[in-house]
Write the structure tokens for this entry.
Amino acid sequence: MPKKERQRQLGLLLEENPFLTDGELSEHFTVSVQTIRLDRLEGGIPELRERLKTVATRTMKEEVKSLHSDEIIGDIIDIELDKKALSIFDVTTDHVFQRNGITRGHHLFAQANSLAVAVMDDDLALTVKSTINFLKPVKAGDRVVARAEVKKESLLEKRTLVEVVSTVGEETVFTGEFYMFRTTDRK
Amino acid sequence: MPKKERQRQLGLLLEENPFLTDGELSEHFTVSVQTIRLDRLEGGIPELRERLKTVATRTMKEEVKSLHSDEIIGDIIDIELDKKALSIFDVTTDHVFQRNGITRGHHLFAQANSLAVAVMDDDLALTVKSTINFLKPVKAGDRVVARAEVKKESLLEKRTLVEVVSTVGEETVFTGEFYMFRTTDRK
DNA sequence: ACTACTATTAGTACCAAGTGCTAATCCGGA
DNA sequence: TCCGGATTAGCACTTGGTACTAATAGTAGT
């Protein structure tokens, strides 16, 4: 196998499995350890321990992110319990269809739904029913601002209607009506 | 500081920052490196390189998972393009409210929405409007089976209605109507 | 006061997985 | 045949450890 091809494969291999030592790599390519070292040097590929460090760092960041973003999608900026609330959600390439770059609907829904849950002054509010409209496609890089407003309450049925309108710049991209169920009694 | 307290703090510290060497730790607690080693030994805490390895391993797994689970939430089991499709989604503790253990609505929506997109024989199908009902709370450990059925099409408007019914065991937990927009013309 | 015990510290040899450097060897082409 | 790139080998040194032994300090028990 020519040198160039070996180095290409080395890069790919380490990308998908950064845990391989030079020794293991040398066996895989049936060359000496020194050759592997030279290959890494030329390709600018760091040693095993550095690779693990960066991969591990990535994890720690992701964990913080996913913890945040799973609990409430979007950052809540302002909230008046039982009245209204506002959150922003920055769309990244993680949230879009690869094919056309348009945000997957469930992310917009998730932001709106999370906000509807948060605006209710109730630990255990649940969504019962919802009608939603996706008005304009949202792309990666867009900042989606969701505004939730508590519309009416039926204390008897423990139900509340929350309306959410999401915008990007001046344009409304999403609207939703969320019928929420209150599990605890009001004060 | 008593030994016990130091060891407790050591554990907490390394949990949130696994990148610290024994040397750095010894400075932090102003004890010798050897004491740190003994503390790790007694607490069953592995060395830096082992810690990074496990953290990095976790990442690689997560990455595979999130790639899958972001593209389509739930595993598609069966699909007849333009007719019907079926997916399952195993709820874990990651998907529920901490307070009451009930699945966050947007996960059920995401499964249904993904399935509605998938069943359309169209690369770029988008959700336009949707009405959904959360009928029964879903808990961690439940296996949610979503069935999507293409109801009617309006070729002129390029719109299609897809109905999704999600069940856990015998019980229907979620229903949704998804009005989908077809971006490419039918053959 | 002497002993026992615990916690801490120091020091040694060793290991894995490297870097950095020098030197030797092989192999193909002008 | 001689040159040059590619490969291999060898050695000293580095990090961040393990494993083990030994010394020291302080404290409680009798």
About this structure: Chain A has a mean pLDDT of 88.
